[in-house]
Amino acid sequence: MRASLLQIDVNPDEAVRFRRERVAGLVREQAGADLVVLPELWTVGAFAYEAFDAYAETPGDGPTAVAMSAAAADAKVWLHAGSIVERAPDGTLYNTSLVFGPDGALRRTYRKIHRFGFDSGEAVLMGAGDEIATIALPGLVAGLATCYDLRFPEQFRQLTDAGAGLLIVPAGWPARRREHWTLLARARAVENQAYVLACCSAGTHAGVEQAGHSQVVDPWGEVLAEAGEAEEVLTVDLDPGKVAKTREEFPALRDRVLGLPEPPRR
Predict the structure, then answer these.
(1) Catalytic site residue 245?
(2) Which helix or strand (DSSP H or E) is residue 161 part of?
(3) Which residue among 47, 201, 218, 224 is least packed, with the fewest CB closer than 10 Å?
(4) How far apart are CA 24 and CA 20, in angstroms?
(5) 3-class SS of residue 152
(6) What CATH number is attached to the domain comprising 110?
(7) Is the pLDDT of residue 205 over 60?
(8) Which pTM does this prediction carry?
């Protein structure tokens, strides 16, 4: 499986509609990859709270969904289009990830469960998702999470229990906590013996410098590729068989005692 992570510069001086067009072009350039991943809220900026309402859209037919659907179909790739500010029918805003198939169809959405802000910002402006999300990709089941979710290992363990061998984490992580970003991505890979694709934005928006340093981590915790701080594309070939091989050769997951899933009821 060939994966491309697009570390997008979220520049406040670039109009959202132009960034959307530019990113769609970058996605099309990844033809030949199997999977393309974008950062969290790359249209508006993860910390641009005052703009959330103005740029909220619907997952199925909003401008970002339409543009990303067409780009995925043109490139014939699975596209994790990062996340958008979703406006639900009842008016609630959500931080919602969109995954498109190679035919351009919207195959999966995920509403971010853990909202950042400590009683401000995203934590009060957006609703919380209440379901983990997985999707079967060629060769691996992917588990979906977003940015601040990375700090909550129990979510990733649930994704592993649901069959995930690939964990996709788009983010708008701030530069002042960059070491946490890279450390936690590796930790989630090691403890779940899964690939982690951690795709962050670059640049500065709403006065918050972004961490960049998107990375691809293998099931043993080895960093296969890591970006710098500017806009960059990482392309890495993943071996789907390495997940099963790692879990077989070092079967730590079978020694779990706490937090095991409940057996099915008869």
Answers:
(1) no
(2) helix 153-161
(3) 224
(4) 6
(5) coil
(6) 3.60.110.10
(7) yes
(8) 0.96
Catalytic hit among 86, 122, 147, 200: 147
- Residue 264 within a domain: no
Q: Is 76 marked active-site?
A: no
CA distance 116 to 88: 19
Q: Cα angle at 177 between 171 and 183, to 5 degrees?
A: 80
Spatial CA neighbour of 212 closest among 221, 193, 199: 199
| Residue 112 falls in the annotated catalytic set | yes
pLDDT at residue 265, rounded to an integer: 56
Contact 27, 235 (CB under 8 A): no
The predicted structure's pLDDT at residue 263: 62
Asked whether residue 263 is assigned to any structural domain, the reply reads no
Domain count, the chain: 1
Q: Which domain range does residue 79 map to?
A: 2-255
In this structure, how many other beta carbons lie within 10 angstroms of the beta carbon of residue 60? 11
Q: Rounded distance, CA 30 to CA 25, Å?
A: 9
> What integer pLDDT is reported at residue 33 of this predicted model?
98
Q: Distance between CA 157 and CA 163 in Å, rounded? A: 10
At 23, phi and psi to the nearest 5? Answer: -70, -40
Which position among 112, 122, 200, 232 bears the catalytic label?
112
Neighbour order of strands in the sheet with 78-87: 106-111, 93-100, 78-87, 35-37, 2-7, 232-237
Distance from the Cα of residue 215 to its chain's centroid: 12
Q: Which of 136-140, 168-172, 262-266 has the lowest mean pLDDT?
A: 262-266
DSSP label of 119? S
Catalytic residue among 40, 86, 122, 232: 40
Percent of the chain scored above 70 by pLDDT? 98
CA-CA distance, 209 to 141, in Å (whole number)? Answer: 33
Q: Is the pLDDT of residue 264 over 80?
A: no
Q: State the virtual CA torsion across 6, 7, 12, 15 in degrees, nearest 10.
A: -10
